[in-house]
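Minutes, project check-in
Item: structure for the 298-residue chain
Input as provided by the requester:
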Amino acid sequence: MLTGIRIVFLGGDARQIEVIRKCVEMDATVSAAGFDKWDTPGPGVSLEQMSVELLSRADVLVLPTVGCDDEGNISALFSTERLQLLEEHAAALPSGCTVYTGMAKSYLRGLCARHSLKLVELLSRDDVAIYNSIPTAEGALVMAIQNTDFTIHGSTSMVLGMGRTGFTMARALQGLGSVVKVGVRKQEHYARAEEMGWKPFMTGELLVHAPEVDLIFNTIPSMIITAQVLSRLPKHCVIIDLASAPGGCDFRYAEKRGIKAMLAPGLPGIVAPKSAGIIMAGALVQSISDETFNRGDE
């Protein structure tokens, strides 16, 4: 339970609604700014405007999945007002306040460091990333189906990277009857891919495998699908880049060659916001509970 803990939410999308509801269910005292367009907030949620006073009462501050941009602007789908996290807001937070987000950019990291605030990035947790890989893979499959004139069954798919998302993506494609090639950078990933029945190759050999592929799903957040690679792909190939922006594909050259290439970060919040919100809510509640318990031991 989160009884007696004051949690302030700033902005977010449909995922954040689920997180807020979970915190209310766990008996936290919940205030939310950036939700003036939320029609049915329900009992237990105090809708307020963002202010220094509001933040000064927070035991926990929860920001959206991508905390804020490089100027402190916070995404707030349910608000008509602009939310911006500034120095005075960080300075107002109590010294023991913990700031939670999915992933933080340098602006937020710097703000927390300057004001000695603990920052927790929930997407860095293995359990959250593994659970999130499920709606990511489902969303990527939807995009692939919508942008091709052939079935995934019988096609040759390439997954670049065998982290948590890449593994789930490859398994989903295999389940649909695709021949799955997996580009890896570690020998242990090569072995695991082969054991799974996929066709692994080291990413340094990408040029060799490029002419034989119908679909590419990239999870590597660095330039890997270069102009040279694109020049060897068949023109019907569709690329879905799941890496964080700016992705790992030369989108300019892909367009020039007439190859469909789409950057698709944040799919969980787009295709399955309820499920993605429940995942984040569980991780947040567990993290707050663990931190409260640890403080009690000090």
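Outcome recorded: The CA atoms of residues 206 and 229 lie 7 Å apart.
No further action items on this chain.
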